[in-house]
Amino acid sequence: MSPQHSRLVQLVILIAIIAIAPLLVPSNYYLRVMTLIYVFGLAAVGLNLLMGFAGQVSLGHAGFIGIGAYSVALGSVHWGLTGLTSAVLGAFASAAIAAMVGRPILRLKGHYLAVATLGFGFLIALLITNEAGLTGGPDGIAVPRPVVLGWRLRTVEQWYWISGVVLVAGVFIAQNLVASSTGRALRAIHDSEVAAQAIGVDVARQKLKVFVISAVYASLAGSLLAFCNGLVTPESTAGFLKSVELVTMVVLGGLGSVFGSVLGAAVLVLLPQVLTVFHDYEHLMLGLLMVLCIVMLPRGVVPSLARKFARTGR
Asked: Residue of 67, 71, 256, 288 with fewest CB within 10 Å of its CB?
């Protein structure tokens, strides 16, 4: 199967799942869970562009989710802006901050880069938490439901379809980016920055570009999360554990696999719901299952399964 055909099949599968799922689930609770999968899947797709294709580690990406979430909250509550306008401004703000922060940070490599991005995430979370007069502090701030063409978007079904459409658009854009000259440059950087520079790739520019793009993905996911929940808090958006969850989604689904990012988000969102029957052992079981999955499928779920099927088909 050619790469182009494979990308098309993955996109069709994703669209089919989004279209059919509401017909199969028994209640809005499951639609709510699916919506969270789509939201975090969008953020994971953006992070995979940075980690899986460019090979740059980020442990503070939830900071951009927080920027997107609090942009719609503050824009709607304090500045009288519409929800859509606030989300767009949040995406631009995330892009500008990523461009400013990325220039010095992306010069670092390995664990130095990881620590630097971790510090950025902590800084955003700390800023949101301490500015209680503006952000509501640890208690968070309520987000008014946006109004579009006279309709107030408040139901689970409405946000299910909106988040699903945004995810499909995000996956489509990411797939085309990966297949473009930019994607080839990112893969070259991932393999060897020195070799990439030797063949004419502007390494610093390409790394900064993908960092900005991944930040915009995370910001839009944060805006969707704020609208879906109707409430944003530092812990639910910009907390350190959210960054860890995003990295886990990417690694679990498969580094360098756009569709794997969505699958990784699905696994990490669904498992806690399934493991609630174990009560006190929920986190233990979740950690054990994730370790087993990574040990048995070291390349991630999608690349490992694709490799096994390819071997079987020979």
From this structure: 288
